[in-house]
Structure formats: C-alpha cells, structure tokens
Amino acid sequence: MEVESRYVAVRHHVEGLPSEDDFEVKAARVRWWPESGEVLVRNLYLSVDPYQLNRMKRRSASHLAVDGIVPGERIDAYGAGEVVASACEEYKEGDVVTGVLGWEDYTLFRPSPGVLMSKLAASDDLPLSHHLSALGTSGMTAYAGLYEVGRPEAGEKVFVSAASGSVGSLVGQFAKLAGCYVVGCAGTNAKVDLLKNKLGFDDAFNYKDEPDMKSALKRYFPDGIDIYFDNVGGETLEAALANMNTYGRVALCGVISEYTDAGHRAVPDLLEVIYKRITIRGFFAWDFLTRFAEFTGVISDWIRQGKVQVIEDISDGLESVPSAFTALFSGDNIGKKMVKLA
Amino acid sequence: MEVESRYVAVRHHVEGLPSEDDFEVKAARVRWWPESGEVLVRNLYLSVDPYQLNRMKRRSASHLAVDGIVPGERIDAYGAGEVVASACEEYKEGDVVTGVLGWEDYTLFRPSPGVLMSKLAASDDLPLSHHLSALGTSGMTAYAGLYEVGRPEAGEKVFVSAASGSVGSLVGQFAKLAGCYVVGCAGTNAKVDLLKNKLGFDDAFNYKDEPDMKSALKRYFPDGIDIYFDNVGGETLEAALANMNTYGRVALCGVISEYTDAGHRAVPDLLEVIYKRITIRGFFAWDFLTRFAEFTGVISDWIRQGKVQVIEDISDGLESVPSAFTALFSGDNIGKKMVKLA
Q1: What dotted CATH number matches A137-285?
Q2: CATH 3.40.50.12280, applies to B2-133+311-340
Q3: Selecting from 3.30.450.20, 3.40.50.300, 1.10.10.1800, 3.40.50.720, what CATH number does the domain B141-285 have?
Q4: What is the ipTM score, two decimals?
Q5: pLDDT given for residue B289 in this prediction
Q6: CB–CB contact B284 A271 (8 Å)
Q7: Exposure check for chain B: N or C terminus, fewer CB within 10 A?
C-alpha cells in the first residue's frame, strides 16, 4: 500500500524566535507492505510543543535528551491517529493510537519497547483531543512535575508561570485539588480572567503589568512561595527564588524565555538557594513513563467529575502546523495548542 | 563568679573581602551565679567558618537562617570548651562540651532544646579538635551533603570544589569510601598534592592553571559528572553543569566566590538543568541535626580505622581569630581552620 502524505519540515536550523517562513510543507509517498512489520497510521491530531524549538537549533542541550531536527526531514511529534494498515498482531485496522507520530499526514511505526505508542480502549469516553492535552504529555508533565517534583502539602503556596498554557493551566488546577493556595501569571487580561474565573486559581496577574516581578510576588504571596512551577525561566525565576520559603521547591519544566534567546538567562541568587535550602529540579514527563497509566487514570476521573477543565486551542489542517507552532512563542494561544487533520 | 573575658567583634558590617582591620578584640566581664540556671564554659577551640561572612553583612539571605552579626557585639560560633561552673544538673565542672559557643574566652549558655550543645563522653579517644572538624559541623556538612543530598552510587563520578577545605577534604574521602571516582580542585599545587597523595582523590587540579573550566572538567571527567559538591558557585558551577550527566545532582553547600562579591554570580544554563534532569539543592548540616550521633559514629570509626585523614589548620590565641577568619578568603588555609585558646 502506498499513500500520498505531506509533512512539515524546517528549511534550516532555527535559532531565535521562529517564523512561519522557517517551515515548509513537503510532499512524500509512504509505502507499507504486509511483510514490513510496520503499522501505518493516518494522523488525526498533532501536538505542537515549545520544546520542539530547541530540537530545531543547530546545538542545544535538548539534543542530549531528544534527537535534533534535521532541516528538510520529517519531524516526530506526539499525536493521535487511526491505524489504516498493520503488519503486526497488536494493532488492527481502525484502532486509535496515541504516541510519537509526526507532523505529517501518515506515520509508519514499528512496535518495540522503545516506541511510545498506546492503543485507546474501545470504551474510552473522553474526546480524542484530550489524549494530546490533559491525558497526553501536557497532563503528564503537570502531574509529575507538581506531585513528584513539587510534592505539595495542603495549605502550601504554589506559583505557576505561563499559567494559561497547556501545562500551567493543569498544574494550577491540580494544585487546587491538593489543597494549595495557587497564583498564576500570564500575558493577557483574557488569560488572567480565565485563570481566576474558570480554572479556580486563587489569584492571577498579567506579568506585563508588573515591571518589578519581585514586588509583585511579594504582594501575591505575603506568606512566601513553597512551590514554583517554572515554565519560563529568566527574571521570573529570580523573583520566585527571592520570595520562596525555606525548603521551597522549583519544578523546572521549561524556560521558554530562554528558548528564543540564548543570551537571556536567569541569574539566581545562590545564597537564597542555600540559606532557604531550596531544591531546583529539572524534569521530563517521560522520566515517569512507567506511571502514565496511573496518572491518566486519576486525571480522567477528575475530568469526568468536572474537577478539571481542559483548555484546548485547535487549528485545522497540516498546513496550519507552522502558524500553530510559532503562536506558542508570541503568547497568542490559550491552553493546549494542537492541529486537527482533516 | 565573675571572670575576665575577651571577645572578637566586627567594628562595622563587612560587605566585601574581609580584612583584619574589620575586627577588634574587646574586653568584658562574664558573671555567673548559682541561681542563674546557666553554664559557664571556658572555651578551648573555636571554629572559623566562611559562612560567618554572610552574617556580617548588613543584608544577606543568610539572616533568614541565622541571626545577623551586630557590630560591637559578641559573635556566636561553634566550638569546644570546659565547664567551669554550672547551675544545672546535666553539666558538671570539668565536663567538656561542643556546640554553639562564641569567639570569646568564656561563654555562658542556658541548656534548652533549642541550644546546640553536647557533652563529650569520658571515654572519647579522639583529639578534641576533631569535634570541630570531622566530627563537628564540617564533618556533618560533608556527610549529609554527600550522602543525603548527593546520594552517591558506587562507580559514580564526583567533583568537589574547594576540595582541600574543611568540608571538601572530607567529601572527597567519603566519596572514595562510597566507591566513587573523585576529582577535586583547589588553588595551590601544595593543596593538589595533598588531595592526590594523602587524601586518596583519584585526581586533582589547580583551578588557577585552568582558564577554561569547562574544558578542564571535560578532561578530568570524560564520562561526565554525576555529583558536584559545590563550595564555590560562580563559573565553576556553570562548568560543572555543562559537564554533568543525566540525573546529575548538585549539593549546594557554599558559594564562597559569591560571598565576597555579591555581583559575582553563576549564570547556569537552565536548558542543561532541564534536559539532563539535574537537581540543585541547597542544604545545611543543621537540617540533619537529629542524625548527628549516627553520622559522627560512622565518621569516628573511619578515623580510628585510618580510612579518613583529618586535616586541621590551628591558630593560637583568641587574638588570632581575625587573621584565621580572613585567611579563609585568601586561599591560605588547608583543611579545617580553627583557633586554639591558651
């Protein structure tokens, strides 16, 4: 079987703020045959994630953990799709899978323990898109980062940056369910409104209105911060450390302010880190892979019970991948950004 | 009973590199009487520690954890002394105690759960000075920092900065006992020689001979660093992070390069911290106070078995406290710096 497929590639390594011109949609033919041992998937939803930008750089610490992206070549990405042909018993035509697919119409994969792919239960009652957001890597990142890295106790004070984003919007809700006091920051008043009035944050503010982040955090956290879930790095991290309590924890999830500008870096006051005995820990959702089923089980129940709102921002068509991706860095999107294929 | 006592004070807050002129020796009379409930101790050994410099600043994150030092007033400090008069049953004349005393000839204390003071067993067979070094806060810091924060596994690679200092010299030896590969850096060739030829470090180097610390660490750790025991901060921390392995741990004990120059700060690459899932944790020996007896028991056995060498640098007389203290910042001393009173 051979299908016409298109894929999104970068034209060249991307070093600063990405623009749509950095991308191109290329045509390809994908060939599957019964003896290949492979599974052919027609992609239905594709995830766009800020960390992909690091993979597009010529050199980046990210290449230690995930392969760099090669200009002109296909780009793997988390997604959901439907099996259209299978050369192995575990997968049948019509099965819906989620896992590492690609920014393309069709993806071929060969099942192996190293390949992250799972088959949806026929009984699954939640929208498929949720498997890219609250039940996908965003949900896992929020869950593992808050509970395993942050380790909240009821009554603790939690600060979340990029709080209306795919991960932050879930972290804040999860922290409320843990009995914490939660404040988030975001970059527009509409986002702040969402956090306060729909997602149940105790408070939220627009960081663009706060020229002095240290004083802002002092106002929002008169009793200090116990856990900072960091998605942005830079001055926000410095300010959070300055307002942190003894034994505070920083779950270092992303430093988006440093992705687009390598010269922009946080200069933490290490005396604060020592004297307040702060722990700063970088983490990946994938370090907790063996516990995905446990985590998604809990999150699914919360969604069904109405305890967690899932915010998604869905673009249409493979050709919208470049604009969806670049929007992540202009502050335009709210919640989990993804692309739905026709 | 009233005794003539002298104490060392700072003349004013100390903001940069300390000099002997910042200090003065002042006369006082200390009065004890049977109804006071207090214990009068004649001090025998006094500890001088770099962190005291932060306490001498007008403003410092250290004041969150330990009281700031007031110009002209006595300065509390770890030490060992002999009880000369006691108004409580637990302590008798002639008992030898170790704990928080002061830079002074005589110290009065009132026993309470909040006062760190312990009585030496009559059977104690190790030199009293060791209770300020390997069996005092230096030993506790090294033990807790390496084992509880660093959590070494046999075969892991450990880097220690300020490796010939009071804490570093023990960390390296403890890490060897844990089956690790250990490299230390120090600031003179004599110190490097000590590390390699007396303390059993696998390798050591003079950081002053290495203009590019990142490349130096790449040479000394071709397989990367798993644990960095940081006593200095600054560029050394940046270089260690750049050479660290996945799941690496930084035990942040001190940032001596930043104590004397608040403008001098490490600018860690947080992308390294995320993608290598590094944990950076500030700690105090005192956070592990409840386990001091356990730790000192282990270290005492190691000393008796000749497995750990205790390096001490002892000055004589209370009037040598200022020069002993300032020497900590000029790189002159080797091992645990302390002052023996007449």
Answers
A1: 3.40.50.720
A2: no
A3: 3.40.50.720
A4: 0.93
A5: 87
A6: no
A7: C
